[in-house]
From TrEMBL:
This is Lactocepin. The active site is at D92 (charge relay system), H156 (charge relay system), S352 (charge relay system). GO terms for cellular component: membrane. It comes from Lentilactobacillus kefiri. Residues 1-26 form the signal peptide. Residues 439-550 form the C5a peptidase/Subtilisin-like protease SBT2-like Fn3-like domain. Residues 44-68 are annotated as: Disordered. Residues 83-398 form the Peptidase S8/S53 domain. Belongs to the peptidase S8 family.
Amino acid sequence: MKLRKNNPTFKKFTVTMAVLTLSTLAGLSTLNGGQPTTIQAAQTKISASKDTNEQIKPSKDPADEPSLVKGNVKGLWSQGYSGQGMVIAIIDTGIVSHRDFRLSDNSTAKISKSDAEKFISQRGYGKYVSPKIPFAYNYVNNYDTDVMSNDMAGYHGLSTAGYTAANGSKNNKDKKYVLGMAPQAQLLNMKVFGGFSDEFPNDVSRAIYDAVALGANVINMSFGQGVPAQSLTNQEQAAVKYATDHGVFVSIASGNYAHSGSLNTDINAASDSRTTVFDPANSGTVSNPAAAPSGMAVGSENTLLGDKLAMETMSAWGPTPEYFMKPDITAPGNLVASTAPHNGYAIESGTSMASPFIAGSAAIVMQKIMKDQPNLKGSDLVNAVKIALMNSAQPMQDTLFKGHVVSPRVQGAGQVNVTNAGNLKSSVTDAATGTASAALHQIGQSSKFALNVTNHSNTQETYTLNTSNGPWTESRKMDKKYGTGTVYDTRIPGATLTPDQSQITVDPGKTVKVGFTLDLGNQAKQNSIAEGYISLTNSDATQNLSVPYMGYYGDPTDEQVLDKPANQKGSIFGGGYLLDRQNTMLGISDRTSLSGYVNKKGTYGDSQIAWGNLPPKIQNDKVAFSPNGDGSQDAVYPLAYTKQSLANAQIRILNSAGKVVRVVDSETNIDKSFSEIYGAQIDDMTMAVSMRLHPFAFTWDGKLYDQSTGKMKAAPDGQYQYQIVATNYNDGNKKVQTMNLPVRVDNAAPTINHATYKNGKLAVSYNDVGAGFTKMSAMATKVGKKAFGVSLGNDGNNNKGNIKYNFTKAQQKLALKSKKIKLTIWDVAGNKVTKTIKLNKAKVHSLPSNASQIKWKLQTTQLPKLDNHVMNTVTTRFYPSKGISFSGLNDNNITLINANSKVYNANTHTLTIQGKVKNPKDKLIILKSVNKNSKDNKVKIDKSGNFKYTIQVAPVGQRGIGYFLTTPGKKKSTTQSGTLEVITDTVAPSLDLSSSLTGNQTSHNQYSVSTNDDTIHIKGSVNDNVSGVRLTINGNNIYHQQNDAGFTNLTNPGEDPNPYPIHQFDETYQLNNGENIFTISAVDQVGNTVTKVIHVTRN
């Protein structure tokens, strides 16, 4: 299966369809014909104009916009709830000033100008904009000026803000305007994207904490990354919980990655769909922080009604890796009108737009509930709003498959009904968890669960239980030609869901518990989903309640979680092979011959060889590298894919006897592999968010630990296995799975035994004692400045051979002008031999052509970049700015600073920023303070363009330092902006060993032990002030703490941000006779290291 390629994309979940040109009112007036065009935004995709014209209908009033009608918003407006006194934080790319961002009555504002200015004064940052937007701040670059959406960051935040709470006026001169869900609510402009490819959890978390402190009622976040499990130690998820615990509702876009089986391959053109190329055990692609338990993850539907109602195909599917139910709800997000730059309007699509629909809706539902139940506070208030929205939602039917329901794994509770939510008298929740969905996790043929029905009104309410909407399971309608399958839900034959009572009456203020028995019968397929909806019908249809349920029947670990290698039948992702650090696929040929093959035109066809066609050609017995430090194939790392997110992944090296001789790396929280939106970029295991600071941690450098010397040394030549060990989040028979990739260590160079050139004829004999060659192998033949590749004529089974090649007349003439011919042969491990033939004067001969032996005419070592292993989904950031360079700091990227950093003084907490500009006449501003125009921010540049500047940075934390470089031009100056993202941690980890090992200290961190035993226990504990500490013993990474808690403790500033306990370890090692040296090291995320060495003498 061949993977398609695509370009890097931003990780915000909006699709900008067209700029609105409106003939009447802006709400939903007619688009001015033609193809829609793209404005600056993330995740862009162009739909056919046919779709636009079908879904965007003329409207006389923005309040009649289909999304508002479909979500039943206006009913609450008519009751007087449109966001007065409510505050919604938009954590996004920033908000541009727009005429529709206004309050009808400024006296309804919850946050006054004086309130905002007091907060700004206390914090030392932020900006008051208007009564509608009382606070704005850029959390990426940490300054007040650039708080708006712009061309660099995109206008994503402007769109989400408008859809949430725009309050346009019909008195606008051009009669154009839009209305958001909560038009009278205030907005907080919290910018967390500043021209980078994704958000930093630290910036997002800071914004969340500030939103809570400012008095926000609702937060909207329309972005995400990865496919995480639920974790209250994850920095973003912990911040979401902090918000909900403090009474702030959090709406989050679930993501635009569709079903995890919808990979973009040569047989499936679109990854953002329900058309799948394989049948995964877990269909989930819900991103972080949407996976947060207390947040509301939002899916996206279209704005059509009746039989045209449908989910947006790109909307992310659940469940989470451990089978919690997400998304929670669905809202109109496809082709909706919102604000655009320059007081304009645009049509937007994606879960990015569905989420602000829920954010605005939650604000007005909360406004109503706060009046009806004033005693509700904190998480109780948030839960009441969330449950009301979910209980009142209406499960959608599948319009592609009539009579079938849309899976709760993609629509959650169903289509939002805002007015019903605000007026519900009762609630129904899972009795075990108190949530408005029932996640049953792993279930057997028969299972039981219960729901609690609580009456919050002062009247008795009666409900009839209806379980006919299920149990369903996932099926695939197969396309026999391509082998793809469209997923849909179908009934499980013979399965039933039976309540223990068919009707209940609930007295005011009381709760009735209803038990259910789920019986899947005898025809349910093992290892499949069982799901559906339970309805509670009231005599008043507006009081009907609904709750989704889902369980996994069987063992989710039965799935082969690590995808098969590309050279094996059944490989789905086309990975499962090793590369060197120069991007060479190992096991095909040497790099030079491979690049000649890939880049050649003519002999192998009229176009370049498709990069994606090569992996199936890998020969396992030819996968080799030479860790000798010559820069050619010195190390290996994998391109490997996982069908499920993993709790842990470990890289081990096994020798030919199957013994583990090295543990290269241990990682936690590895995201599953899935297609990037609208393209074939499939994130491999090393693209996991948890590996963003160390993306090449899976690399084996070919070294092993020598216990007799205490040093790392090159592994002996021979056969090894590169083993990936995957640990599932779920329990089961195959919780831990492995995949072995054969690799040979070969440091022996080939030899050229004989080489002659006479009368235009080249004769060469060669030999190799190592991994040898393949059919693709060629000899580089350089005559003068020209080089061409001559086939070795090797069938791949022999390590020796003879080459006989007749030079063409042109080549002979070239040889006449040259004094020598240089020959180079590489083996598949990257070892090379070079031989030079000195030439005598001769004449040109007419010889038979042997052009078939020519592999390439000009030597090239350039190979295509492997798109699905480029760090563009998780931060490699933008390219460095032009005309400026920094010393010791990464421009527009992350710099890790530890206690030994040359650019940071840990005693004075001073960061030195120095570098050089190309034009000494440039003006440079580096943001020491939040005010861009402050004199403190101006940097002096000398006549040579050099500069040096100092800034205070906390010894532990993360900070984006913004800068502006203005270059004078003939007509006008141009200004570039950038960011130096620094992560500082000057505190070393703690490493304590048991007293039995440290009783005899010979020098600093050096200890000696004498024993008669043949084994020794290396015992102790390790921890750090920041999460993510690693423990290595003898070069083996035996422990790696989860590294997702961030570098700042926002809940308790000044305290360590590490929420994880001390790790105790006890490892047993075999002792050799005589001296044994054990090296134990603790290393934190930024490289602070503590090492202790134990010299053990076995008597």
